[in-house]
Amino acid sequence: MAQLTLPSIISDHMVLQRGNAIPIWGKSQPGQTVAVKLDRGDGQPVVSVSTQADEHGKWQVLLDTTSAPDQPLELEVQADGQGVKRIRDVLVGQVWICSGQSNMDFPVKSAINSKEEIETADFPKIRVFKLSRMVSQTPAEDLEQGEWKVCTPECIPEFSAVGYFFGRSLFQNLHVPVGLIHSAWGGSVAESWTSALTIENDPDFKDKLKELAGLDESKCQALKTPAVNPNDYPTLLFNGMVNPVIPYGIRGVIWYQGESNVNFAKQYQRVFPAMIVDWRNHWKQGDFSFLFVSLANHKEPTKQPSESRWAELREAQTKTLALPKTGMALAIDLGDAYDIHPKNKQDVGKRLALSSLKTTYGKNWFMLAQCSIQCSSTAPKQWLLSA
Questions:
Q1: For 4, what's the count of Cα atoms within 13 Å in the CB-facing half-sphere?
Q2: In 10 A of CB 69, how many CB atoms?
Protein backbone atom coordinates (compact mmCIF):
# COMPACT_ATOMS: atom_id res chain seq x y z
CA MET A 1 0.00 0.00 0.00
CA ALA A 2 1.34 3.42 -0.97
CA GLN A 3 2.26 5.58 2.00
CA LEU A 4 1.61 9.29 2.39
CA THR A 5 4.74 11.13 1.25
CA LEU A 6 5.77 14.74 0.70
CA PRO A 7 8.62 16.05 -1.47
CA SER A 8 11.87 17.03 0.25
CA ILE A 9 11.27 20.73 -0.40
CA ILE A 10 8.18 20.60 1.85
CA SER A 11 9.82 20.19 5.25
CA ASP A 12 10.39 21.79 8.66
CA HIS A 13 11.54 25.46 8.69
CA MET A 14 10.36 26.13 5.14
CA VAL A 15 9.07 29.44 3.85
CA LEU A 16 5.84 29.36 1.87
CA GLN A 17 5.31 32.07 -0.71
CA ARG A 18 2.59 34.52 0.27
CA GLY A 19 -0.15 34.31 -2.35
CA ASN A 20 -3.58 32.95 -3.22
CA ALA A 21 -2.63 29.70 -4.99
CA ILE A 22 0.42 28.11 -3.36
CA PRO A 23 0.87 24.42 -4.25
CA ILE A 24 1.31 21.64 -1.71
CA TRP A 25 1.66 18.20 -3.25
CA GLY A 26 2.66 14.62 -2.63
CA LYS A 27 1.67 10.97 -3.00
CA SER A 28 -0.69 8.61 -1.22
CA GLN A 29 -2.94 5.69 -2.03
CA PRO A 30 -4.89 6.19 -5.30
CA GLY A 31 -8.35 7.65 -4.70
CA GLN A 32 -7.59 8.57 -1.12
CA THR A 33 -8.84 11.82 0.41
CA VAL A 34 -6.02 14.10 1.53
CA ALA A 35 -6.64 17.06 3.86
CA VAL A 36 -4.11 19.89 4.18
CA LYS A 37 -4.24 22.45 6.97
CA LEU A 38 -2.04 25.41 7.90
CA ASP A 39 -2.46 26.49 11.53
CA ARG A 40 -0.78 28.32 14.39
CA GLY A 41 0.04 25.10 16.20
CA ASP A 42 -3.17 25.18 18.22
CA GLY A 43 -5.24 23.16 15.78
CA GLN A 44 -7.22 26.20 14.59
CA PRO A 45 -6.71 26.44 10.82
CA VAL A 46 -5.47 29.55 9.10
CA VAL A 47 -6.43 27.82 5.87
CA SER A 48 -7.52 24.27 5.08
CA VAL A 49 -8.37 22.39 1.89
CA SER A 50 -8.79 18.79 0.79
CA THR A 51 -8.50 16.82 -2.43
CA GLN A 52 -8.44 13.27 -3.75
CA ALA A 53 -5.37 11.44 -5.02
CA ASP A 54 -5.50 10.46 -8.70
CA GLU A 55 -5.16 6.95 -10.11
CA HIS A 56 -1.39 7.14 -9.66
CA GLY A 57 -1.62 8.32 -6.06
CA LYS A 58 -0.55 11.87 -6.90
CA TRP A 59 -2.36 14.80 -5.32
CA GLN A 60 -2.01 18.58 -5.12
CA VAL A 61 -3.86 21.38 -3.36
CA LEU A 62 -3.59 25.15 -3.61
CA LEU A 63 -3.38 27.12 -0.37
CA ASP A 64 -4.39 30.75 -0.01
CA THR A 65 -1.65 32.16 2.22
CA THR A 66 -2.46 35.80 1.48
CA SER A 67 -3.73 36.52 4.99
CA ALA A 68 -1.48 34.12 6.90
CA PRO A 69 0.05 35.69 10.04
CA ASP A 70 3.72 36.61 10.22
CA GLN A 71 4.59 33.97 12.80
CA PRO A 72 5.74 30.32 12.82
CA LEU A 73 2.96 27.99 11.66
CA GLU A 74 2.40 24.26 11.27
CA LEU A 75 1.40 22.47 8.08
CA GLU A 76 -0.61 19.30 8.65
CA VAL A 77 -1.24 16.79 5.87
CA GLN A 78 -3.59 13.91 6.63
CA ALA A 79 -4.61 10.98 4.45
CA ASP A 80 -7.39 8.63 5.51
CA GLY A 81 -5.93 5.60 7.22
CA GLN A 82 -2.30 6.61 6.70
CA GLY A 83 -1.61 8.92 9.60
CA VAL A 84 -0.50 12.53 9.60
CA LYS A 85 2.53 14.46 8.34
CA ARG A 86 3.32 17.61 10.34
CA ILE A 87 5.70 20.26 9.03
CA ARG A 88 6.76 22.60 11.83
CA ASP A 89 8.14 26.13 12.06
CA VAL A 90 6.69 27.24 8.72
CA LEU A 91 6.89 30.92 7.76
CA VAL A 92 5.01 32.73 5.01
CA GLY A 93 6.95 35.32 3.03
CA GLN A 94 8.97 35.69 -0.16
CA VAL A 95 10.67 32.73 -1.85
CA TRP A 96 13.44 32.99 -4.43
CA ILE A 97 15.42 30.45 -6.45
CA CYS A 98 19.19 31.16 -6.61
CA SER A 99 20.59 29.40 -9.67
CA GLY A 100 23.36 29.41 -12.26
CA GLN A 101 26.98 28.32 -12.34
CA SER A 102 30.04 28.83 -10.12
CA ASN A 103 29.57 32.50 -9.30
CA MET A 104 26.15 31.64 -7.87
CA ASP A 105 27.51 28.48 -6.25
CA PHE A 106 30.36 30.55 -4.71
CA PRO A 107 29.97 30.17 -0.91
CA VAL A 108 29.77 32.84 1.78
CA LYS A 109 32.94 31.46 3.39
CA SER A 110 34.95 32.53 0.30
CA ALA A 111 33.58 36.07 -0.03
CA ILE A 112 35.39 39.18 1.17
CA ASN A 113 34.99 39.85 4.90
CA SER A 114 33.73 36.28 5.26
CA LYS A 115 34.58 35.97 8.95
CA GLU A 116 32.46 38.97 9.90
CA GLU A 117 29.69 38.04 7.46
CA ILE A 118 29.40 34.55 8.94
CA GLU A 119 29.50 35.73 12.56
CA THR A 120 26.62 38.15 11.93
CA ALA A 121 24.47 35.76 9.84
CA ASP A 122 21.80 35.39 12.51
CA PHE A 123 18.43 35.91 10.83
CA PRO A 124 15.65 33.64 12.16
CA LYS A 125 13.27 34.86 9.46
CA ILE A 126 15.63 33.98 6.60
CA ARG A 127 15.52 30.29 5.69
CA VAL A 128 17.84 28.53 3.25
CA PHE A 129 17.62 25.29 1.27
CA LYS A 130 20.65 24.00 -0.64
CA LEU A 131 20.15 21.31 -3.26
CA SER A 132 22.74 18.58 -3.60
CA ARG A 133 24.22 18.23 -7.06
CA MET A 134 22.12 15.89 -9.16
CA VAL A 135 21.88 15.13 -12.87
CA SER A 136 19.15 13.00 -14.40
CA GLN A 137 18.37 11.59 -17.81
CA THR A 138 14.65 12.23 -17.23
CA PRO A 139 12.77 14.74 -15.02
CA ALA A 140 13.21 13.66 -11.39
CA GLU A 141 10.16 13.88 -9.14
CA ASP A 142 12.09 14.53 -5.93
CA LEU A 143 15.51 15.40 -4.59
CA GLU A 144 17.88 12.76 -3.24
CA GLN A 145 18.34 14.87 -0.11
CA GLY A 146 17.90 18.40 1.22
CA GLU A 147 16.40 20.32 4.11
CA TRP A 148 15.39 23.83 5.05
CA LYS A 149 17.61 25.51 7.64
CA VAL A 150 17.22 28.66 9.72
CA CYS A 151 19.88 31.20 8.73
CA THR A 152 22.62 31.01 11.37
CA PRO A 153 26.43 31.33 11.44
CA GLU A 154 26.57 27.53 11.49
CA CYS A 155 24.69 26.87 8.24
CA ILE A 156 25.52 29.90 6.08
CA PRO A 157 29.25 29.35 5.26
CA GLU A 158 28.49 26.84 2.47
CA PHE A 159 25.45 28.67 1.11
CA SER A 160 25.50 30.81 -2.04
CA ALA A 161 27.10 34.16 -1.22
CA VAL A 162 25.13 36.01 -3.90
CA GLY A 163 21.95 34.30 -2.74
CA TYR A 164 22.54 35.11 0.93
CA PHE A 165 23.48 38.75 0.37
CA PHE A 166 20.47 39.15 -1.93
CA GLY A 167 18.15 37.60 0.66
CA ARG A 168 19.60 39.62 3.51
CA SER A 169 19.13 42.88 1.62
CA LEU A 170 15.59 41.87 0.66
CA PHE A 171 14.75 41.07 4.29
CA GLN A 172 16.22 44.34 5.54
CA ASN A 173 14.09 46.30 3.06
CA LEU A 174 10.81 44.36 3.15
CA HIS A 175 10.89 43.14 6.77
CA VAL A 176 9.19 39.85 5.86
CA PRO A 177 10.40 36.24 5.96
CA VAL A 178 12.61 35.25 3.04
CA GLY A 179 13.19 31.74 1.69
CA LEU A 180 16.22 31.06 -0.53
CA ILE A 181 16.63 27.89 -2.62
CA HIS A 182 20.22 27.35 -3.79
CA SER A 183 20.34 25.28 -7.00
CA ALA A 184 23.62 25.87 -8.85
CA TRP A 185 26.45 23.92 -10.50
CA GLY A 186 29.84 25.40 -11.40
CA GLY A 187 30.80 25.41 -15.07
CA SER A 188 27.28 24.61 -16.28
CA VAL A 189 25.77 25.88 -19.53
CA ALA A 190 22.26 27.30 -19.90
CA GLU A 191 21.03 24.46 -22.10
CA SER A 192 21.66 21.98 -19.29
CA TRP A 193 19.17 23.99 -17.19
CA THR A 194 16.50 23.83 -19.93
CA SER A 195 13.86 21.13 -20.34
CA ALA A 196 13.62 18.75 -23.27
CA LEU A 197 10.26 20.27 -24.25
CA THR A 198 12.06 23.50 -25.11
CA ILE A 199 15.57 22.49 -26.11
CA GLU A 200 14.38 19.78 -28.54
CA ASN A 201 13.16 22.58 -30.79
CA ASP A 202 16.67 24.03 -31.08
CA PRO A 203 18.56 22.57 -34.07
CA ASP A 204 21.89 22.81 -32.23
CA PHE A 205 20.83 20.30 -29.57
CA LYS A 206 18.56 17.78 -31.32
CA ASP A 207 21.30 15.21 -31.89
CA LYS A 208 22.51 15.39 -28.29
CA LEU A 209 18.97 14.84 -27.00
CA LYS A 210 18.55 11.79 -29.23
CA GLU A 211 21.86 10.44 -27.92
CA LEU A 212 20.74 11.01 -24.31
CA ALA A 213 17.43 9.25 -24.91
CA GLY A 214 19.27 6.27 -26.40
CA LEU A 215 21.61 5.64 -23.48
CA ASP A 216 21.27 2.20 -21.90
CA GLU A 217 20.59 1.77 -18.17
CA SER A 218 24.24 1.29 -17.16
CA LYS A 219 25.27 4.53 -18.85
CA CYS A 220 22.31 6.33 -17.29
CA GLN A 221 23.52 5.24 -13.86
CA ALA A 222 26.95 6.62 -14.73
CA LEU A 223 25.36 10.04 -15.15
CA LYS A 224 24.85 10.14 -11.38
CA THR A 225 28.53 9.72 -10.49
CA PRO A 226 30.27 12.76 -8.95
CA ALA A 227 32.61 13.02 -11.93
CA VAL A 228 29.84 13.61 -14.46
CA ASN A 229 29.97 16.80 -16.50
CA PRO A 230 26.47 18.32 -16.61
CA ASN A 231 27.40 19.90 -19.94
CA ASP A 232 27.67 16.50 -21.64
CA TYR A 233 23.99 16.68 -22.53
CA PRO A 234 21.30 19.37 -22.42
CA THR A 235 18.48 19.04 -19.85
CA LEU A 236 20.53 17.17 -17.20
CA LEU A 237 20.35 19.93 -14.58
CA PHE A 238 16.78 20.89 -15.33
CA ASN A 239 15.83 17.26 -14.78
CA GLY A 240 17.86 16.84 -11.60
CA MET A 241 17.88 20.26 -9.91
CA VAL A 242 14.88 22.23 -11.20
CA ASN A 243 12.05 19.79 -11.89
CA PRO A 244 12.07 18.34 -8.32
CA VAL A 245 11.33 21.82 -6.94
CA ILE A 246 8.45 22.55 -9.34
CA PRO A 247 5.72 23.67 -8.54
CA TYR A 248 6.91 25.07 -5.18
CA GLY A 249 5.53 28.59 -4.83
CA ILE A 250 8.14 31.24 -5.65
CA ARG A 251 8.27 34.99 -6.21
CA GLY A 252 11.19 34.85 -8.58
CA VAL A 253 14.63 33.66 -9.65
CA ILE A 254 18.07 35.23 -9.39
CA TRP A 255 20.55 33.89 -11.94
CA TYR A 256 24.34 34.23 -12.27
CA GLN A 257 25.58 32.31 -15.30
CA GLY A 258 26.99 32.81 -18.77
CA GLU A 259 30.74 32.33 -18.47
CA SER A 260 30.43 28.78 -19.84
CA ASN A 261 28.43 30.03 -22.83
CA VAL A 262 30.82 32.79 -23.95
CA ASN A 263 32.04 30.77 -26.93
CA PHE A 264 28.46 30.61 -28.20
CA ALA A 265 27.23 34.11 -27.42
CA LYS A 266 25.03 34.39 -30.52
CA GLN A 267 23.41 31.09 -29.64
CA TYR A 268 22.87 32.39 -26.09
CA GLN A 269 20.65 35.12 -27.52
CA ARG A 270 17.99 32.47 -28.08
CA VAL A 271 18.98 29.82 -25.49
CA PHE A 272 18.83 32.10 -22.43
CA PRO A 273 15.42 33.72 -23.03
CA ALA A 274 14.06 30.34 -24.10
CA MET A 275 15.20 28.90 -20.76
CA ILE A 276 13.43 31.66 -18.83
CA VAL A 277 10.18 31.09 -20.73
CA ASP A 278 10.64 27.35 -20.21
CA TRP A 279 10.86 27.71 -16.42
CA ARG A 280 7.83 29.97 -16.32
CA ASN A 281 5.81 27.53 -18.43
CA HIS A 282 6.69 24.61 -16.18
CA TRP A 283 5.99 26.46 -12.93
CA LYS A 284 2.60 27.69 -14.17
CA GLN A 285 2.76 30.67 -11.82
CA GLY A 286 2.75 33.41 -14.44
CA ASP A 287 5.66 35.62 -15.41
CA PHE A 288 7.47 35.52 -12.08
CA SER A 289 10.49 37.82 -11.83
CA PHE A 290 13.72 36.58 -13.38
CA LEU A 291 16.73 38.71 -12.43
CA PHE A 292 20.24 38.02 -13.67
CA VAL A 293 23.80 39.29 -13.37
CA SER A 294 25.57 40.75 -16.39
CA LEU A 295 29.02 39.14 -16.56
CA ALA A 296 31.67 40.82 -14.42
CA ASN A 297 34.83 42.18 -16.02
CA HIS A 298 37.64 39.63 -16.31
CA LYS A 299 41.21 39.64 -17.72
CA GLU A 300 43.40 42.64 -18.39
CA PRO A 301 41.85 45.33 -20.60
CA THR A 302 43.21 45.52 -24.13
CA LYS A 303 44.94 48.66 -25.36
CA GLN A 304 43.37 48.46 -28.80
CA PRO A 305 39.78 47.81 -29.87
CA SER A 306 39.21 44.10 -30.38
CA GLU A 307 36.53 41.44 -30.58
CA SER A 308 35.25 40.23 -27.21
CA ARG A 309 33.16 37.12 -26.68
CA TRP A 310 32.44 38.32 -23.16
CA ALA A 311 31.01 41.56 -24.54
CA GLU A 312 28.89 39.56 -26.98
CA LEU A 313 27.55 37.47 -24.11
CA ARG A 314 26.68 40.61 -22.16
CA GLU A 315 24.86 41.88 -25.24
CA ALA A 316 22.84 38.65 -25.31
CA GLN A 317 21.99 39.16 -21.65
CA THR A 318 20.92 42.75 -22.28
CA LYS A 319 18.65 41.68 -25.15
CA THR A 320 16.94 39.25 -22.79
CA LEU A 321 15.52 42.26 -20.94
CA ALA A 322 12.91 42.33 -23.71
CA LEU A 323 11.12 39.59 -21.77
CA PRO A 324 8.58 40.83 -19.19
CA LYS A 325 9.48 40.94 -15.49
CA THR A 326 13.22 40.62 -16.06
CA GLY A 327 16.00 42.70 -14.53
CA MET A 328 19.77 42.85 -14.81
CA ALA A 329 22.37 43.69 -12.18
CA LEU A 330 25.58 45.13 -13.63
CA ALA A 331 28.88 43.73 -12.36
CA ILE A 332 31.29 45.20 -14.92
CA ASP A 333 32.99 47.15 -12.12
CA LEU A 334 33.11 44.27 -9.63
CA GLY A 335 35.28 41.73 -11.45
CA ASP A 336 38.86 40.57 -11.08
CA ALA A 337 41.31 40.51 -13.98
CA TYR A 338 42.99 37.36 -12.64
CA ASP A 339 40.10 35.49 -11.03
CA ILE A 340 36.90 34.51 -12.82
CA HIS A 341 35.29 34.27 -9.37
CA PRO A 342 35.48 37.78 -7.89
CA LYS A 343 35.06 37.76 -4.13
CA ASN A 344 32.87 40.85 -3.82
CA LYS A 345 29.52 39.12 -3.80
CA GLN A 346 27.96 41.61 -1.36
CA ASP A 347 27.45 44.25 -4.03
CA VAL A 348 26.19 41.70 -6.55
CA GLY A 349 23.54 40.49 -4.09
CA LYS A 350 22.60 44.04 -3.15
CA ARG A 351 22.18 45.07 -6.79
CA LEU A 352 19.96 42.08 -7.48
CA ALA A 353 17.89 43.04 -4.43
CA LEU A 354 17.57 46.61 -5.69
CA SER A 355 16.41 45.26 -9.03
CA SER A 356 13.81 43.09 -7.30
CA LEU A 357 12.53 46.00 -5.22
CA LYS A 358 11.88 47.91 -8.42
CA THR A 359 10.84 45.10 -10.77
CA THR A 360 8.97 42.83 -8.37
CA TYR A 361 7.82 44.93 -5.42
CA GLY A 362 7.15 48.29 -7.07
CA LYS A 363 9.40 50.32 -4.79
CA ASN A 364 9.96 53.59 -6.57
CA TRP A 365 11.94 55.50 -3.96
CA PHE A 366 15.14 55.03 -5.93
CA MET A 367 16.03 55.22 -9.60
CA LEU A 368 17.10 52.26 -11.72
CA ALA A 369 17.81 52.61 -15.40
CA GLN A 370 18.86 50.19 -18.10
CA CYS A 371 20.90 52.09 -20.65
CA SER A 372 21.71 51.13 -24.21
CA ILE A 373 24.01 52.63 -26.81
CA GLN A 374 22.72 52.99 -30.34
CA CYS A 375 24.75 53.80 -33.42
CA SER A 376 23.24 55.54 -36.42
CA SER A 377 24.08 53.78 -39.68
CA THR A 378 23.74 57.06 -41.56
CA ALA A 379 26.08 58.91 -39.20
CA PRO A 380 28.49 56.29 -37.83
CA LYS A 381 30.39 58.79 -35.69
CA GLN A 382 27.27 59.72 -33.76
CA TRP A 383 26.22 57.69 -30.73
CA LEU A 384 23.01 57.90 -28.75
CA LEU A 385 22.82 56.87 -25.11
CA SER A 386 19.25 56.05 -24.15
CA ALA A 387 17.68 54.80 -20.93
A1: 18
A2: 10
- Average pLDDT of every residue of the chain: 90
CB within 8 A of 289, min separation 6: which ones? Answer: 251, 252, 253, 325, 326, 327, 356, 359, 360
Among 204, 278, 295, which residue's Cα sits nearest to residue 237?
A: 278
Assess if residue 385 is contained within a domain. no
SS3 state of residue 67: coil
Residue 9 lies in a domain: no
Which of 182, 178, 142 is CA-nearest to residue 9?
Answer: 142
SS3 365: coil
Whether residue 186 is contained in a domain is answered as: yes
> CA–CA separation, 51 vs 179, rounded Å?
27
Helix (H, G, I), strand (E, B) or coil at 41: coil
DSSP label of 191: G
- Whether residue 382 lies inside any domain: the answer is no
Closest by Cα among 160, 92, 158, 154 to 122:
154
Residue 129, phi then psi, degrees to nearest 5: -135, 120
- How many structural domains compose the chain? 2
Q: Are residues 111 and 223 in the same domain?
A: yes
Domain span holding position 313: 92-375
pLDDT per residue as tens digits for the range 151-204: 999 999 999 999 999 999 999 999 999 999 999 999 999 999 999 999 998 999
Q: With 90 as the cut, is the pLDDT of residue 364 above it?
A: no
Residues 100 and 86 in one domain: no
286-335 pLDDT per residue, tens? 999 999 999 988 666 776 666 778 899 999 999 999 999 999 999 988 86
Which of 24, 59, 90 delimits the end of a domain? 90
Looking at the structure, tell me whether residues 282 and 158 fall in a common domain: yes
* Residue 380, pLDDT above cutoff 60: no
C-alpha closest to that of 193 among 286, 313, 98: 98
Q: Write down the pTM of the prediction.
A: 0.92
Regarding whether 342 and 308 lie in a shared domain, the answer is yes
Q: Is residue 301 reached through a cis peptide bond, with omega within 30 degrees of 0 on the bond before it?
A: no
State the Cα angle at 192 between 190 and 196, rounded to 5°: 115
> Does 180 share its domain with 288?
yes
